[in-house]
Structures are given as C-alpha cells and as structure tokens.
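Researcher: Next sequence.
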Amino acid sequence: MLYVLRLISELGLVSAPATPYLFSANQFVSLLSGIFLAWGTDAFGGHERKRVWIGLSIVGGLWIVTGNYLSLPAALLYMPIFIFLGLVNLWVGGTMLTYPIAGAGKIIAGCTFIVWGLHKVNYPFLRDVAWFATWGYLLGAILALAAALGMLIMYFEKEIAERKMAESQVRQLIYFDSLTGLPNRTSLKERLTEELEKVSRGQAGGAVLFIDLDDFKLINDTFGYTCGDEVIIKAGSYIFDEAAAADIVARIGDDEFIVLLLNRTDRQEIAAITERISQALTRDYTLCGTSIRVSASIGVALYPEDSDKAEDLFKKADLALYAAKESGKNSWRFYKKSMQQDACENMSIQYNLRYAIERGELALHYQPIVSLPDRDIISFEALLRWTSPEHGAVPPDRFIKLAEQSDLIHLLGRWVLREACKFARTMTDLGLGQISVSVNISPCQLEARDFVSLVRRSIETAAIQPSQLELEVTENVLIHSMEDSIRKLQELKVYGVRLSLDDFGVGYSSLTYLKNLPVKKLKIDKSFIDKILSDDAQFAGAIIHMAHSLGLVVVAEGVETEQQAAELFKYRCDYIQGYLLSRPVPWEQAIDLLIAFRREAPLLKSHCRQ
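Model: Next structure:
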C-alpha cells in the first residue's frame, strides 16, 4: 500500500510520465488485494473535477507511456476492441501512467494510474455523472480483474516453462557426461539396477564391459588436456558405434567407459562384441600434427553369473580390467574368481609392506658386476628383498608393482638409497676402494619434486663420493615425463652420480632416448643373453656395437655359463653380471666376495693373458 500511495502522491496533476518503480513478485501479489479509489482536489485550470483510478493491467513486455487518450464515450465504445487487439489497456479517458512490475529481472505486469477528468463545457449533458462513474468504475474493476487473471496465467505458464527448462538442465548435469554427452555413472547405475531387478524375476541377463584407455596419462602430459579431451570424445564415439542401439554406453571417469550389454547371455557373442570394441579403439590418432597409437584394455563381468549387485559387478569388471593391463595392455579378459583372490592377497601385501621397514623385514642383497676379461669387481647392484611373516619371500616384481600403485614406492625408495649409500661407505672404510653401488629407480620416484635433493642428501649423509652411487633407469622413466626426467638426470650427472640404462631391448629401445639420456652405461636384458648361443646371437652383438659407437659401455645381465661369457667377450662386451659370478647376497657376504675376488684377480688376469 505504501508503494501505491507514494506513486499517487508523485502523480499529482502532471501528465508527463514519472520515474517507474520496480516491484518484486511478492509486492505485485499484494497489489491484487483490491481496487483502490482516490479522490483528488483541484482541477485542470480550476474548473475540472479529477478522479484517480488505480488498477492493474498487462503490459505484454511493452512500456506504456503517459498520454491523453480517448474521451470517455469513445473509450467505452472502442476499448474492448483495443484490449482484444492488445493495443492499449485503457478503459477510461484521461491521462494514464503505467508503472512496470518486475519479476526475476523481467517486466511481467504493470500498475496503471488513470487520471480521468470531465470538462463541464465540453460535456454539458453529463453534468450529473454519478451513475455513469459508478458503472464506469464497475466496468473498470471487471476489466482490471480480468487483466490480472490473464496476467497471472501468463506468469505461471512462464514460470512452469522456465522451471521445466531448469529441471531439464539439472537432469542433464546429474545423469550425463558434459564432455561426451554419454550417460554418466549415476545414470548407468540406475539402469543397471533396473536390469538386475529383472534378473530376480528371471527376465534378464547381460554383461558389464569396463574399458580403460592405455597410457592415457602420457597423452595428457605430452599433448595437453585439450588433446586428451579430443581422444576421449573420439573414443566414446567409437565405442558407441560398436554397441547396439539397445545397449548403454557410459563414461564414468577420465578415460574410463562402461558398456552395458543388455539381454545377452551367450559368452561367445559377448566376446565377439568386446573384441570389436577393442579393435575399434586400437587406432592412430593425430594430435598436434603427430600421429600416435592408442589402445584400450577391457574387463568383462557377466550378470547374474558373476553377481546380481551393481557395485559388485563394477568391481569385478574392474578386476578383469586390471588382469588385462597386467597381461600387457591392449587386451581384454573375462572375470574369474581367482582374480578376486589375487586382489585380496594384493591388498594384504600392500598393507603389510607399509610396515615392513619398521618391522625389519626388508633387506638389500648385492650382486657383483665384473669386467671382461680380467673378472675384477667394479661395482655391485643393490636388489631389494622382502621376507614377510605372513606371505613368506615375496618376489620383487610383485611387491614393487604394488608399491608403485601407491605412495609406498617413495617410502621404499628412500630406504633403499640410504642403505645402498651406507654399504658404499662401509666398503670405503674397509679399505676396499671406492666401489660404486647401483640402485634401480622407479619412474614414480623420478617424478617426485624432491628426487634430486633426496639423492644428494643420501650421498652427503653417508659421506661418500657422488660417483660411488649409480642410478639405473629404464625407458619407462621417459614415457611418463621425458623433459622433466632428462632435466633431473642431467642435474645428477653434473653432481657426479653415475647413470645407466637398464633392460635395454625390452622396451621402446629408441635411439632418440639414447641420444638424449645423460647415461654412460647400457645394460642388455637377460632375454638377449639367453639366446646368445643360438642363431639370434647377432642381436646382442649389434646392441654392443651400437652402444660402443655412441660412446657407451655395456653390461650383459643374466650371464649363467662360461660359454655365454666367452661369446660376449668375442663381441667385446665390457662387463657381465649374473649367476656365473654370484647370486645376490647380503652385504656381509658381498664384502667377503669382493675380498675374495681381489685376492684371485691377479691369477685370473694372468690366465686371461695366456
């Protein structure tokens, strides 16, 4: 009411438009409480009687400005037509002001003020207009209420339409992936729950395919997230194209997709679909002008055979996916019960490994590396061993992989560096010379920001020369982050740490890596040494020749027989390592072995000269 009175007071007798006041939706509703009539004194020029009519009208998104409109008789005659045509919303003559009412930032209605004046001179036959004014007010009230009703209908229709649109947008965010437009995990889980309810009635059966792109992190790190998103969008479309129209394709993570195969129980049919999807995803992608090969690993779980619960099916498909990754990637596997047992055992191993250091269960064993032809020990390789009270002697290739999947690899890496540097210091203190000790470095360790400072701190704490520590890296180190890895290794090389490339020949074996890596030693993988006495001997010889041409020294790993050593000597291999010389042994035995080799070295050298 205060707003209305304020407007009336400002209106006065002036026919020019005043500044509009914007009302909220709640204030607008309060204006519908009634029709107000106010009497005004004074007249235009002192001879008019003025009445102010306050009503409500629809503006239809248009501004209605002040003006002198039709006289009263003409208004009564033409106003219904004008209202029907939507031209004006005036039912009496005189001067009118319409003040807009705003809701949600938009004009939805107006409050109309009409100043109606009657001139005695012009309308002598209407000297007594009481009856006419009464019926005019009544007609105005009816029209105002009709206009208000129409306005409310329009308002609520608009509100309903906007609410439906907002609900649609919210549903899109809740149930669909914003990047690919595919259903997300929430939508997938609801649909799978519906299918599993049919299973209880014997009406359904199918499969869950868990898909993960291989080495997708490398794509993001190398080409950026924009190119990574492009790969995800394309991969989603390839999967969708291979699935049937009735199947569900969803994206549930960065590079993770799930395909829900509905009403399929034939294992061979499911296998055929999985193989088609695997082949469709294995292709070349052009990113930033570079063509790269992308593949995927897939895990398959069947329902109700493997489970009749949604989360359990996802978990078992994930276990099958992990098995596919372990088998070398770019493959797929059906879920087996043994996978669940392996997963439980792996979890137990990870848990016990976390406390292995403080329980004193870890140890470093050392295997000597000797020169050819004199058989003198030039260094030791430190190899981590773990004997668990619960699991017994756990193979390194198993628990180290599990450690790399968590932060445990950093804990183990610090311990290994510290113990290896201590061993190097012990040999120096015993007067055995500055024998170097090599340590294998995981790609995860090299990615750590403090890796360089950790290595330097380990050397300084043990008070050894930087050259007494050698770090062995594999080509996988460069796959994760080539530029950052090379920078850190170069910094350590300048500091004095020795660097070598381990397991050469089993990875990418790129000459680009050999040119860019600041290494001085190359280690040939045991798989080549095993074949050195066969027709494949030329491969080991070619590697040795290539390394020498690049200024690298060569170590042959896994030498077990004198025949292998003789063949390597023929190819001018620099150093050998393997069971022929010694198995990895604890540090006390390693020192005894070094002393024994030093004692026998002159005899071996003279024997080699003969």
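Model: The two ends are 120 Å apart (CA to CA). The longest strand covers residues 106-119.
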